[in-house]
Amino acid sequence: MRHFDLSPLYRSTVGFDRLFSMLDNVNGDQTSAYPPYNIERTGENAYRITMAVAGFSEDELTIEAKEHVLTVSGEKAPEPEDREVLYRGIASRAFERRFQIAEYVKVVGASMEHGLLHIDLVRELPETMKPRKIEIKTGQKDDVKQIEGSSATTAH
């Protein structure tokens, strides 16, 4: 029996609560692990993606949400000619990371702190999709008389 590792599905989707919903929207072309990131649930309908983007400024990062894909990309500005780097341990290569987001999930903000890019998302269901409580009425005779009485007075 073969074992399939589905952990990459969890790393690139936000807002899906069920695995079967994710299977149709998997973006399997992501092989790079750069930059590292976390996805966390911060509330019942709130999520946060945190990416380690040390060395990038806000001007060098782009966040775009289009259809059901959130794209985060970064491109470093060219280094000055007069600067010679003897050893480069901090990655400064360009990147593009895509996340599949569920329907009704939208980006509400982004901030940068200590080399970490935080992207906040929230799932907002339209009123027609939210569960609603249906009142159950009893079939008492008083209710029937009231309905009959009100229709009789309007007929005259």
From TrEMBL:
Residues 137-146 have a biased composition (Basic and acidic residues). Residues 28-139 form the SHSP domain. It comes from the Bacteria. SUPFAM superfamilies: HSP20-like chaperones (SSF49764). The keyword Membrane does not apply. Signal peptide: none annotated. The keyword Isomerase does not apply. CDD domains: ACD_IbpA-B_like (cd06470). It holds the Pfam family HSP20. Gene3D superfamilies: 2.60.40.790. PROSITE patterns: SHSP (PS01031). Residues 137-156 are annotated as: Disordered. Keywords: Stress response. Belongs to the small heat shock protein (HSP20) family. This is Heat-shock protein.
